[in-house]
Design a protein that fits this description.
Blueprint: H1 9-29, H2 32-48, H3 56-93, H4 100-116, H5 119-130, H6 135-142, H7 146-167
Length: about 170
């Protein structure tokens, strides 16, 4: 996405209110880099949604709400990641490295599963299962609901299990 022209309403809004959104993000994230990412994400969201500025207080409220929601999402994800890592740390540490043969077999299995599902399910599977993208972000990129992403991912994983069982 290219930068909006200097006279674009969102660019003007960023110049006027960006520091407020950054300060709010810093209060929540306690990390300057994460806060800057949230601030930039918030203004990109304003561009993507074609946000219309009616008044400065309304714009600031929308920006604060959007930045706060993003911060909460990132904090929850961070917390969940830490919890899962703590719960499964010992099991992960004891896992042997996969052999090149098993890695190639896994890739072949995924390739066969992708060939069996429809295009949208395959796209969602690549985004969520292979690239580790959240269901929310994949839904946003694909223009579908989060529930649809969950169902598509479940379909792909069921196909993988069936093919793995057939191969055994």
């Amino acid at each position: 996405m290219s930068k909006p022209p200097a006279n674009h309403p969102i660019a003007t809004l960023y110049d006027e209110l960006g520091a407020f959104v950054l300060r709010r993000s810093m209060q929540m994230m306690h990390d300057p880099h994460a806060a800057m990412d949230v601030t930039q994400w918030t203004f990109l969201k304003a561009l993507e949604t074609d946000f219309r500025v009616r008044s400065r207080p309304e714009a600031l409220a929308w920006l604060y709400r959007t930045a706060t929601q993003r911060c909460l999402h990132l904090l929850r994800a961070r917390s969940t990641h830490r919890r899962l890592h703590h719960e499964h740390r010992d099991a992960l540490m004891g896992l042997p490295s996969p052999s090149p043969e098993s890695t190639a077999a896994d890739r072949e299995l995924v390739h066969r599963a992708l060939a069996k599902v429809d295009e949208r399910t395959g796209e969602i599977a690549l985004l969520t299962w292979a690239q580790g993208m959240s269901n929310e972000r994949a839904a946003e990129l694909c223009g579908v609901s989060v529930r649809t992403v969950g169902r598509a991912r479940a379909t792909f994983e069921a196909c993988l299990r069936t093919l793995a069982a057939e191969a055994s």
